[in-house]
Inverse folding.
């Protein structure tokens, strides 16, 4: 299962990012483990300098801005596209 981590202290922008991720998952009829991380020590451990930050399966996708819905949907579909391309070879 895909793991999505949203880093942020719980501010408006961080909450908006969480809602955007959940909205994208719903629109794509996908499931993922969505985790909100608000621990500053974990920010430092993962190198998060600006919030909100979004990681998908450990890869940083956005930092310091609220991603748009279409952008999040693109990120969510990337692994499926890669798998489809590999199976066609």
């Amino acid at each position: 299962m895909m793991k999505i981590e949203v880093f942020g202290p719980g501010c408006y922008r961080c909450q908006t990012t969480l809602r955007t991720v959940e909205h994208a998952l719903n629109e794509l009829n996908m499931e993922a483990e969505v985790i909100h991380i608000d621990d500053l020590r974990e920010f430092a451990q993962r190198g998060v300098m600006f919030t909100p930050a979004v990681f998908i399966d450990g890869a940083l996708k956005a930092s310091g801005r609220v991603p748009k819905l279409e952008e999040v949907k693109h990120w969510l579909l990337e692994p499926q596209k890669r798998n489809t391309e590999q199976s066609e070879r």
Summary: Strands lie at 2-7, 32-37, 53-56, 59-63. The domain at 2-88 is CATH 3.40.30.10 (Glutaredoxin). The CA atoms of residues 78 and 84 lie 10 Å apart. The longest helix spans residues 69-88.
